[in-house]
Amino acid sequence: MADKLHIERLKERFKGKSTISSENLAIFYKESEPNVKETTINWRIYELVRMGILERISRGQFRIGQMKPYAPEPSRQLSKLYKDLSTHFPYIQLCIWETGWLNDLGQHLSNRSWLILETEKDACEPVFHKLQDNNKAVFLEPTLEMMERYVSIESNPIIVKAMVSEGPFQNSKGVNIPMLEKILVDLVCDTDIFYAYQGRELEYIWENAFSRYTVLQDKLLRYASRRRRKREISEYIKKLYNPAAI
User: Which InterPro entries is this protein grouped with (predicted)?
Assistant: First the structure.
């Protein structure tokens, strides 16, 4: 059975490719078996994914090997803040992360980290005031001017912003944090808040995210659609990872 999959030859053929289409795989198998059925090819692809030889990144798109999942561990400060707010506001959804995580992906290391706290739109004001009462350096949906003038001079500011529904989240040690797909889309969409991560730095972050970690393009594009930026982000992906496609 494994002989029919031609695993080693397949790895060698597609080594270094960022994406492999179903059509590429069909051509690969038809080179040695011109009359192989489409159903047989589909079954082989299924087996390769199940075995971890191929990784599915979107419909009809794959790449070699099992990539590392993006699962940053929340800091003690972040975990405490999340649990305190969850206790005080038990019926609202929260998502929390910090921009220091981007040091793993970006070109320029930053010694400052902004804590990004998302919650339901109607809960933003109560959460904001609760944090103010606790003497936190907290900002609600800051503009670019506020980011440059005030947020940037704080050592550990908290930014409260409205959560977009049906975003991709994950649980890490009891804390609801964004998946990598959400972070990448938000960096593109929220240019005021993430002004320091635009231009070439943004491209660098995306390139490293795709090369180092599993990025599920279906999930990423669904969230981009929720943010009404699907077409733009689809073109962005093509530009960065498949220049021949545009």
Answer: DUF6577
